[in-house]
């Protein structure tokens, strides 16, 4: 990541997200972030005068935006978008990672939620907003696939919740079983919710 | 950081320093007039006190998103707790901070701080940061706070300070260079950082 076209500040946010999803917020130090980003330690003081709290919150916000952007990419790669197909693609991102790189990392938003919601109100808010940021494009996509408008937000929450839970179980078991199970079982249920003709058809 | 360095001038600024000040620094008024404040009293630049937390949060809450972005480079929704704790610890050797107000410390117009470098060593520079409420920008308050912080830093033996601004805001650092000796600059996609050498007290 260091050496990409990103500036040092953006690299530090990215690095913070990567370290948080591996080690959690508490175990991630500012020095670790600077080293991971290939940035001088002092630059953290300049770019994040609010300290670790500001950096963590921005990493959580970044993760929410990243997950939201992935929704459109998954859809673009599906020959015939369906709710179950979209969910399977979301799950596959994680099974691919775990099968190729091991089970060392999870979702940074979930990690920040676990570590900080009781201690840091601003991080709790950032995590809640990140989940909402991820939910919105999912709900919109479901609507475009024929899910009635009154159900899209709730089903998007179901998809995110099932995925986050399966990630947690997969890391505990060091096995992708939970992920493949939720994709297999939830897919038909989600497809069955697409009861309307997609808008514009 | 966003040096909201204000090059205008002010009616009178009373400086109250917690570190032993040079005699000429105490109560030094700043020259000039502050527009729109005729008869409204003097401005005071004073050290942050442990009880200033609510006033600092109020100052932050009253700033526009753009002012917050220029100071913090991002958009924290509230005054970052870690930052507030550092300022309110009132340890000048770690984070020296001053506020400016017109006699009512509950209504602050600005906050400036000089944080010791995260890592000591040759070339390490203290980090300067200034936040001035939107309605009081460009009227000399930032400059008054910076002057006070720099005077104290010289007395503490600080040799270098650094400041970072967002791309396109280099004139703020150029203004600093009229009073301090620039030592180095680094420019990247995220901003411009300049290090200045501080002269000795009395220079």
TrEMBL record, chain A:
Transmembrane segments: none annotated. InterPro entries: Homeodomain-like_sf, HTH_TetR, Tet_transcr_reg_TetR-rel_C_sf, YxaF_TetR_C. Gene3D superfamilies: Tetracycline Repressor, domain 2 (1.10.357.10). Residues 29-48 bind DNA. The keyword DNA-binding applies. Keywords: DNA-binding, Transcription, Transcription regulation. Residues 6-66 form the HTH tetR-type domain. GO terms for molecular function: DNA binding. The keyword Oxidoreductase does not apply. SUPFAM superfamilies: Homeodomain-like, Tetracyclin repressor-like, C-terminal domain. Pfam families: TetR_C_13_2, TetR_N. This is Transcriptional regulator, TetR family. It comes from Streptomyces wuyuanensis.
Automatic annotation (TrEMBL), chain B:
Keywords: Transferase. The keyword Transferase applies. GO terms for molecular function: acyltransferase activity, transferring groups other than amino-acyl groups. Residues 54-203 form the N-acetyltransferase domain. InterPro entries: Acyl_CoA_acyltransferase (IPR016181), GNAT_dom (IPR000182). It comes from the Bacteria. The keyword Ubl conjugation does not apply. Transmembrane segments: none annotated. Residues 17-41 are annotated as: Disordered. This is Acetyltransferase (GNAT) family protein. It comes from Streptomyces wuyuanensis.
């Amino acid at each position: 990541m260091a050496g990409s076209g990103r500036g040092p500040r953006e690299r530090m946010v990215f690095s913070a997200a990567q370290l948080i999803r591996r080690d959690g917020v508490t175990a991630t130090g500012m020095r670790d972030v600077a080293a991971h980003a290939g940035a001088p330690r002092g630059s953290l003081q300049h770019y994040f005068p609010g300290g670790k709290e500001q950096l963590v919150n921005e990493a959580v916000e970044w993760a929410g935006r990243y997950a939201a952007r992935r929704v459109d990419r998954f859809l673009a790669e599906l020959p015939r978008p369906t709710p179950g197909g979209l969910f399977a693609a979301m799950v596959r991102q994680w099974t691919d990672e775990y099968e190729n790189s091991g089970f060392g990392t999870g979702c940074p938003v979930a990690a920040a939620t676990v570590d900080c919601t009781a201690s840091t109100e601003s991080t709790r808010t950032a995590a809640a907003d990140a989940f909402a940021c991820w939910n919105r494009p999912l709900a919109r996509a479901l609507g475009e696939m024929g899910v009635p408008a009154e159900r899209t937000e709730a089903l998007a929450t179901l998809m995110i919740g099932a995925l986050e839970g399966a990630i947690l179980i997969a890391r505990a078991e060091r096995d992708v079983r939970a992920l493949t199970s939720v994709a297999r079982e939830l897919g038909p249920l989600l497809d069955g919710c697409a009861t309307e003709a997609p808008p514009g058809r | 950081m966003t040096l909201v360095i204000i090059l205008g001038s002010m009616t009178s600024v009373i400086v109250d320093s917690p570190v032993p000040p040079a005699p000429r620094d105490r109560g030094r008024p700043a020259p000039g007039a502050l527009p729109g404040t005729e008869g409204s009293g003097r401005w005071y630049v004073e050290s942050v006190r442990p009880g200033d937390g609510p006033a600092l949060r109020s100052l932050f809450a009253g700033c526009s998103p753009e002012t917050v972005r220029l100071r913090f480079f991002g958009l924290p929704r509230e005054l970052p707790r870690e930052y507030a704790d550092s300022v309110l610890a009132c340890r000048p050797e770690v984070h020296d901070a001053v506020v400016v107000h017109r006699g009512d410390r509950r209504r602050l117009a600005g906050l400036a701080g000089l944080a010791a470098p995260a890592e000591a060593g040759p070339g390490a520079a203290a980090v300067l940061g200034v936040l001035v409420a939107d309605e009081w920008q460009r009227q000399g308050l930032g400059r008054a706070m910076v002057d006070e912080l720099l005077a104290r830093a010289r007395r503490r033996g600080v040799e270098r300070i650094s400041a970072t601004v967002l791309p396109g805001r280099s004139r703020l650092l150029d203004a600093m260079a009229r009073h301090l000796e620039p030592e180095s600059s680094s420019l990247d996609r995220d901003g411009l950082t300049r290090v200045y050498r501080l002269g000795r007290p009395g220079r």
